[in-house]
Structures are given as C-alpha cells and as structure tokens.
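Worked example 4.2. Below are the chains of a multi-component assembly; read each line carefully before continuing.
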Amino acid sequence: MKSESRLERILRSGRFALTGELGPPRGADAESVRKKAAFLKGMVDAVNITDNQTAVVRMSSLGACLIAKQEGLEPVYQMVCRDRNRIAMQSDILGAAALGVHTMLCLSGDHQTFGDHPGCKKVFDLDSIQLLGMVKTMRDEGRFQSGAEISVPPQMFIGAAANPFAEPHEFRIQRLAKKVAAGADFIQTQCVYNMERFQAWLNQARDMGLTEKVYILAGVTPLKSLGMARYMKKNVPGMDVPQEYITRLQGVEKKDQAREGMEICCEQIQQMREMKGLAGIHLMAIEWEHRVPEIVKKAGLLPRPEPEQE
Amino acid sequence: MYDQIVMAAYTFARGPMLWAAALILCVGVIYRIRELYCLTIRKEKQSLPATVSTTTPTQTPEERTLDRLARIQQSAFAVHPVMFFVSILFHACLFAAPLLALGHSLEVYRAWGITPPSLPEPLIDIMTATILVCGLFFLMRRLVLPRVQAISGIADYVLLGCVMAPFLTGFCAYHQWFDYTTVITLHLLAGNVLLIVLPFTKIGHMIFFFFVRLCISSEFGPARGSRDWKV
Amino acid sequence: MRPDTHHTEPLNMTSLQETLRHHKKRMSLNLKACAGCSLCAESCFLFELNDHDPCYMPSYKVLNSLGRLYRKRGRVTQTQLHDMADLVWHNCVLCGRCYCPFGINIPAMISLARQILREQNIAGVYPHSLGAPVEKEPP
Amino acid sequence: MIKALTKPLEEIREMIAPYSRVLTIGCGGCVSLCLAGGQKEARGLNIKLSASKAPRSDAIFDDITIERQCEQQFLAALDTRVGNYDALISLACGAGVQFLAERFPNTPVFPGVNTQFVGVTRDIGWYEERCKTCGDCVLGLTAGICPVTMCSKSLFNGPCGGPQDGHCEVDPDTPCAWIAIFERLQAQGRLESITAIHPARDWQNQIPGRILVEEYRTRYIEDGETS
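Applying the procedure described above to all four chains together yields the following structure tokens:
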C-alpha cells in the first residue's frame, strides 16, 4: 500500500470501484457541501472535490475535502497547475496529507479565460505530468523538488485524468503512458459516450501493458436532457456523443428525457463492467448529486464495500 | 542633297518607323504590364476570419480621423507640394497633348479615315508650353538640388531630353520656327524614339506608378495584392 | 569609421556574377522603376537625422550599391565593394520604412546588396562592436 | 523581433497633460519594422497631438527618430536637444524607454507604445508572437514549435484534453501547438522526443537578466574577481 487511501484499498482488492464528484460552492457555505455529501455517502467509494473548476472561484478543494471527510466520505483532492507554483503545490500536498486526505488527482486545469477572472495571471509552473512526478517523488523518495528531504513524506494515492477522445487521437495513448510513467496510480477518464472508441482505446492501453500498471476508471456523466447532449457534442472539446443517444433522447417526451438519460447511463455502466482491464467508474453527475443514489442503485453497483469490511 | 536626306528621313519616320514604333510600344507596354501582373498577384493567399482575436485595440472615431490627418500631412502631397503639383500638371499634359493635338488627329484621319477628338490648337500650344516649363523645372531640380543631383547620371539627362524633344520640336513646328520640314522631321523622329524607349527605360515609370497603386499592398496604399515584386 | 575591414582578398568574380545573374530580373525591374524623383528621402529617418545628407537617401543607397553592381555586371573593385558595404550597413538600419512612389522594395534591394557583399566576405562591421564608441554629432 | 502597438492617443494625452514642450522620440529598430514607433509614427503622433484638442493650447510638439534607443551611443544624438523640452515620449520598446529615461534622469519620459511580444512578420501589418524569452530553449525537442509561447497553458508534456478541430480550446483561431508539434515530429519520424517525460524546468526569471559575453568579461569584471 502506498497510502492510507480507501480508494487504493478497494482498487487493490480487485473490486470494481466507483467514484463520484462534488463541486464546492461559491461561498463559505459548509452546509451546501454537507448537503451534497449526504447524497453521495454510502453510494461511492471516493469523491473528487474539484479545484476551482472551469476557472471559476469556489471554496478551496482542500477545504471542501475536509468537510466531506467529516461527513464520512473519502475525498479525492483535485489540484490544478493553473493557480499554484511548485512551492504552493508542495505545501498544500503536505497540508492535505497531514489532515488525512490521502488521494489526489493531478490536472492541468481549465484555462483562466474560461472562468470569472479571465485577466488573471496564469501560473502553469508545472504541467500535470510534472505535477504527478513531483507528488510521486515526495511520496516515494521523501524529497521536495529542490531535492531537500521531507521530514514526514505525504502518503498519497495519485490520480491523473485522461481523455481518450481528444486530438491527436494517435498520441492519446502515449500521453496515458507518460502519465503512468510519471507516477499515476489511477486514471479517471473524460466522460465516455462513444463506447466503441473507448473500448478501442482501452484495448490499446491493455496491449501496451498499461492496465497492469494503473487502475483505469471510466468517466460517466448522465445526460440530463437532449439540450445537454447536443451541447456536449457540439461545444465540449473531445466529447464524442453518438447520434444513437441523441436519437433516443429525441424519441421521448421532454419530461422523460432525464429518465432516459439515466437509463443510457446505467446501460453504459453495465457494458463497462464487462470490459477487461477497467478498474471502475468515475460518475460525474454535474449538479445532479441528488440523483446519484438512484443511478447507482439502478446500475446495480450497490452495495458499496463498507469501510469496516476492508 | 540636304533636302533629299530630310525628305527620306521624313518619309521613313512617318511610314515604317512610325509603324515599328507603335508596334514596339504596344508590345512593350503589354509585356511590362503582364510582367508586373505576374509578379504582383498573390500566389498563396493568407487570410484570417473577421472575428479573429488580436491584441490590437479598436480605434475611436477621433483616432481614426486624426490618423487620416497624420497620413495626409505626411504624404508626398503635403511634404513636396510644388513637386507634387508640377508632376501632376506635367504628366497630365504629357498624356493629353499628343493624343488630342489637331495635327495628330488629322494624321490618323489620313491613315484610317476616322477622326479622333482633338482640342483647339491654342490650348494644345499652352499645354506644350507647360510641358516645356515643367521639363525645365525638372532639369533645374536635377542640376541644383543636392538630393536629386546625388542620384542623377548622364542617362537621366538623356532621357529627360528624349521626353522633351518631341514637344520642343512640335512647339517649334506649330509656331513655324526654323525650317519647317527639318523641324517636323525631327519631331517625327523624336516622337518615334520616345515611343520606342518608353517601355524599356525608366520613362516606363508611368506603368509602375499605376500598378503600384493597384497591385502592391504596402503601408502606403490600399491595394490588396502582393507586398513586393516577387521575382 | 571602419577600421579593419579592408581585407585584400581577391574578389570571387564567378560567384558574384552568378548571384547577379540569379537576381537579374528582380534587380532590373526594381532599378528601372526608379525615376530618380528623390521623394523617398524624407521617409528615411537617417536622412532627417543627418541634416538631409543625400547619401542617406534610400534611392542613393540602392543605386550606389546594388545599382552599381548591376550596371557594371559585377566588375567592381574591392575598394568599391567596401564603399558599398558602408552604404548598406552604416547608412541603413533596414528598418524597412522607406517610401517609393513606384513601389520599389528598397529594403529588399538593400538586403540583396548585403547578401552579395557577404558572399564576398565583406560584412558590415558596426563601429561600436569593436569597442570604439561613436558619438554622433547632434544634428 | 520585438513587436509593439501604439498606445491609445487618449492615454498619451493624459500622460503629457502637464507639459508644454514635448519631444517624441522614434526608434529605428524593432518598433519601426512593426509600424509602431518609427519616424512616421513619431511624426504622426506629433500631428495628432497638435491637431487634437491638446491639453494646453501653447504646447509645442517635436519629433526625432534615432537608430535605436537600446544603445547609449545612439541616445547621445539627443544630448543637446533634450534640454529644450520638459517631457519626452519614447516610441521604443520597454527596454528603450528605460534606457532613455536612464540617460536623461531629470526629464520625465513617457512610453508611447505598448510592447507586445517577440514575434514574426507574417505579412506587412500582421505580426505573431513566437517567443517568451524564457531563457532555456526546448525548440529542438518540440519540432521548432514553442510550447511555452504557442500553448495557452505552456505545457511541456502536452497536449491537454482540450483541442478541438486542431485548435486551442482557449481560442478557435489559434492552432493547438501540441497537435502541430506531434504532427511535425511524426512526419520527421522522431516522436520519441515527446514520448519521453519533460521534467519540470528552472524558470530563469529570478533576477533581471544580464549577459557578459565571454570575450568581454575581463573588460567589465573588476580586478581580482575574474573567474
């Protein structure tokens, strides 16, 4: 075991893992984090706490991680390269580990121009792969980037993101390999809709032996409506929503679209459970945390392993 | 003997030489224009969408107006008003006078039976005088101004002579100065020589002048063609 | 101004004439377009800065470097080449802003002259790069 | 070379409002080439300042353009003139403005351009950024396309998950640098230079840069301190 991460224990035990996502509020509002956490408790093995997602200022990921932890969830501390240089990153990692946050996800981060402070100065002192390497060095070698020794190294289970559908397609698997080489213990992918392409990407990863080295969790996001499906297909880079799903959503009445979307989501999860080399699901129900229990139940992912059973 | 030579020259200049000169002029000008056209069309088009993001701020209407003012005040027109005015006058007369002279019109009628338009003779006379005065201005400029002196060679004077000769002789012929036959023969010869050398020497700058404005994009013009004469 | 650039190496006439031949069309067109009107003068800030000295006129610089090479088909002396080097390196900074009513690309002509001179191993030596600061006379 | 943009006229007018004799100084270097600070712009600025409702009706505006403002030997041409003015506008890049202000410390110097970037001339009047002067060039590894400059996130191990139709997610008119790097390296058959992890680098931005060319070291380093 590299850490005290509950996600690591579950993945190591070979059980099909399920992670969720929780977006912190735009205010010092602990209650809203608790409310969202309540929906997820007992439903998922760990919860990603986003770090100023889409470059919009929110409660810090670490702060929300702690609240989630108090509520009995296992937080996955997300960290982006946009806002911190390596000093701030290392110090935050130490702080997180000291407070009992043992899982983190290293990301480049959305560009600041997408957020509410487009004129701010970007940092990108490191990129996501360099960040992965830095956390690994801190954990395994007990050294800072400077080479100086860390008195008590942080025990972190390190995650990274991968987008199997982005351009240039031929290079995506190479980048996954780079992330694994840099130190990723687990991978959460971008939302998957095109199952064929995802399967092909996973096969490539298996052929390269990557699934032996890293736990891959497939990203799944339920389509809340036809509008959302169309928007994702058109406007979100690297998002490949097949026409088939859009036709299905068109086929039902507007009030039933959410149900149909959940149906699709559950079918996807069922298919994914059969995929060789896939270690779990990362369920990103964006601003839909309250529907997570329903989806998890429908998809037959319950019950989740209890912490005391581990 | 002298008369015979003059007559022979007259016949030659009015006949075969004129045809040859006209032909050479046409071919030469067409060749030049084609050459320039080929050299200035854009081979690879580079363009951006109208919505492209740039760091250039948009100008206020006041800035645009002032920009225009600054451009005008720095143009050749504002910096060298005399030169500008004399050039325009000179070149306008240079084109108009030969094309609209009554004598030339009659020659065309004699050859092809059509009468091109012509202006009253006294007007042409004034235009020719203008050309001669302007020519003198250019000559003086070349002789006196250090900046023009510095870039003048024998060729520049010879070519200025080439341009002025037909007009000087034409002016003399109209006023019946000197021996008319000799003068008109010289006029014909000089005119032909001018037509022949026009496309191949720097007198051809008239072609460049228009081409530049139409085809070469630069910080000085509105044209959308190539930046340079690519060769 | 130009301390030790007078190498006495012989000219490489073959390569010089080869380069001239290669750029013949371009040179002839540009040089022929010059009507000698001198309207380019004011567009050169060096002309303005140096008290309207004609040898800073863009046309002067082209005609007396590339123009001379073209007219003489490369039959020039080493000393003449060095004078040209002075013109195209010392009297011109290639800021690219000269105006020509006939559209002559003067900077391109100057840079062609520089290229030819470099091929003859004559490169402009800026005075200050030799450590001898040149204080300009105030105009 | 360095590319700049002329400052908005209003801003320049505000800066020089308290002064009545203003000399605009153009630069014959980079800013001339990008049509921002050459003689024509210096003169143009004068014309605009004089013509527009100047802050003071009695103000005098003059202009002069020198070879380069980033070298003291050329700035010397101004020595006898500057005394006649109570403010200077420099149309040089930020470096030139500072050197000018250093030479004439008693006269207020105002910048007339916004220095934008180190870039290239795509065509006349069309300039593009290419270099962030980061001080540690990796272009050899990245097929001659700068990841620091051309990638919005300055990634060394790109591309991120965002490119769409070959373009950067930040701006649809900007091609994704990492796709270009990948494609060019693939065509050259040397993808291995980006399949390897590029480690975190030392950003050389700690103190203002200073270069001492080796041959000249002894000239500037005080006795006994030569290395």
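Take a moment to check your reading of the output against the notes. The interface with chain D takes residues 46, 48-49, 51-53, 55-57, 60, 62-63, 66-67, 69-71, 73-74, 217-219, 227 of chain B (CB under 8 Å). The radius of gyration of chain B is 23 Å.
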